[in-house]
Design goal:
The chain is mainly alpha-helical. Helices cover 78% and strands 0% of the residues. It contains 2 helices and no strands. Helix 1 runs antiparallel to helix 2. The protein starts with 6 loop residues before the first helix and ends with a helix.
Length: 64
């Protein structure tokens, strides 16, 4: 586990985790034969999840 003491380091950690997990999973889920523009849908959905992960990381980092 990482020792996050301030909101800035929490933001960096959230950005790393968000880009790795949220964007990869969202693009992978969008790659179906029935999706007309899978990368656009994956980017929009992944960005939504990235913002959520960043918000949670900053909130949790504020408590440290």
């Amino acid at each position: 586990m990482s020792a996050v003491d301030d909101p800035v380091s929490a933001l960096v950690l959230g950005a790393v985790v968000g880009c790795e997990i949220a964007m990869a999973v969202s693009v992978n889920n969008a790659l179906t034969p029935h999706t007309p523009r899978p990368f656009r849908l994956g980017f929009i959905t992944g960005s939504y999840h990235l913002v959520g992960i960043l918000a949670v990381a900053v909130i949790l980092g504020s408590f440290g």
